[in-house]
Amino acid sequence: MATAGAPDGIDGRGPADSPLETVRDVELPERVDRLADAYDRQFDDRDRFLWQWIYALFPEFTLSSVADEYARHVRTQKTILTMYVTILDDLLETHGDRATFLEVCKCHRKGLEPDPDPAAVDADTVEFVQRVWTAFETGQEGAPRREAFADVFAYDLDQTINAVEYSAVLSDTPEMANITGARRYDSHNMVLFAYTDIDLMYSPAFDLSDFGALRDLVWDLQEMARIGNWVTTWERELGEGDYSSGVVVTALQEGVLTPEDLGDGDHEQLVRSVRDHGIEERYRRRWERLHRSVTRRGTEATSVDLDALVRGMETVFEFHLASEGLK
Predict the structure, then answer these.
(1) pLDDT tens figures, 112-122
(2) Cβ(23)–Cβ(323) under 8 Å?
(3) Residue pLDDT, tens place only, 137-166
(4) Domain containing 129 — which CATH number?
(5) Is 271 part of a structural domain of the chain?
């Protein structure tokens, strides 16, 4: 596994001693910083650490095909997209506000316009989400291959939002928990396909003949990223009533936990039950198996360095482990 030093180019700094130092040393670009300030005034769901965390990590798993002159801009764009997806996720998972969620989803869907006026819709949230999406869309205007990948991006972003909805439905109906669904649906919550599409919009020399091989790899890398998230957030999410983590889903499917336990059970006892059955450790081993698979696959691509992308996901996993409980 790679050593998690500071990603190249973080505000001109050299390598940091630890992933947490790397994140805490990050200075967000002005466009993100302004949105983060506005976010803090309106919401208390997420700490600024999350935006610093993802901004610090993006250079590690940005495609090598992104032209150098676009690298910093791409990093900013993907951070803004992360804020957009995160707010939508929190509307369902934290606030249970499906009416506002459905309205703001119109922001990214062509030909639709959010309406802040219907009853049960939070107008202030709609206005802020529109601001975030507009900032992202405006930033995409100069992408040299925007049109070439626009339809793919729209499709992939919809899969991410579908994953957000799946997680909410599962938390409301834990009886449906199954690990196949978690892997196929919930992994899209990592946004890795949409991030990849943004990279490609800024990759003038990318050869479309490499597209299939790249996406085949991203399927496994996205699950690896999701596992990193699952094993470091499941305990907190379990206490918050979010049961969509693969760790908790496995516990439900195998009868370690029951849906009846979730509502009234003692949180510490539920956590001990999951840990005693080694479920978290099994996911760490699955991550290792996926890592061996993608490392040995030997897929060739002429216009993008797939091995570098794999190495980047090693660092993503280290950052997940180092920041447990902080995001």
Answers:
(1) 999 888 878 99
(2) yes
(3) 999 999 999 999 999 999 999 999 999 999
(4) 1.10.600.10
(5) yes
